[in-house]
């Protein structure tokens, strides 16, 4: 998923795999997901992988994005992943066509404002839905 900013800036957020390929152990351990977080702005260029998102967080994030794309006010203007401290915040609309989403890290530092048309937002939603289907909640064999 690519979140575009101004002047060619972007943040790429992509699910890579389950953090644990083993089907044994505690359910909470089985459901962490590794992801890529790539930042390319005039202030920062970085790329990292982490396993700080749970499968159970994908659906709420998907619904949050869908509410924005469908012109509904989300229940909360902020979506924050539990462990990795990435925050997405709806901060504005321009003529109900362009959504502005602030993306921050855990220290509340703004990384970038993403400017997304409804079509771009739908592309992100579709990509996230496909990725979420690949990584359903896994139950322990114990």
Q: What are the main properties of this structure?
A:
142 residues; alpha+beta; Transcriptional Co-activator pc4, Chain A; 4-stranded antiparallel sheet; 3 helices; globular
| N-to-C SSE string, H for helix and E for strand | EEHEEHEEEEH
Q: How are the strands of the largest sheet arranged? A: 1-2-3-4
Largest sheet: 4 strands, antiparallel
The total of beta strands comes to 8
Percent helix, as a range, is: 25-40%
Oligomer: single chain
Form type = globular
Percentage beta strand: 35-45%
Secondary-structure class: alpha+beta
Summarize the structure in words.
With about 140 residues, the chain is α+β, with helices and mostly antiparallel strands. It has a single domain, classed as Transcriptional Co-activator pc4, Chain A, CATH 2.30.31. The chain has three helices and eight strands, in the order E-E-H-E-E-H-E-E-E-E-H. The strands form two sheets. The protein has a four-stranded antiparallel β-sheet with strand order 1-2-3-4. Strands 5-6-7-8 form a four-stranded antiparallel β-sheet. Helix 2 (about 55-70) runs antiparallel to helix 3 (about 120-135).
């Amino acid at each position: 998923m690519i979140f575009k900013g101004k002047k060619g800036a972007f943040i790429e957020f992509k699910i890579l795999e389950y953090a644990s390929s083993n089907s044994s152990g505690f359910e909470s351990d089985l459901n962490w997901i590794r992801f890529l977080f790539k930042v390319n702005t005039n202030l920062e260029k970085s790329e990292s992988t982490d396993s700080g998102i749970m499968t159970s967080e994908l659906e709420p994030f998907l619904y949050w994005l869908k509410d924005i794309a469908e012109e509904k006010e989300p229940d909360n203007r902020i979506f924050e992943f539990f462990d990795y401290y990435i925050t997405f915040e709806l901060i504005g609309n321009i003529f109900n066509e362009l959504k502005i989403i602030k993306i921050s890290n855990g220290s509340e530092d703004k990384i970038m404002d993403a400017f997304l048309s409804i079509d771009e937002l739908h592309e992100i939603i579709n990509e996230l839905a496909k990725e979420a289907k690949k990584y359903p909640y896994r139950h322990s064999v114990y």
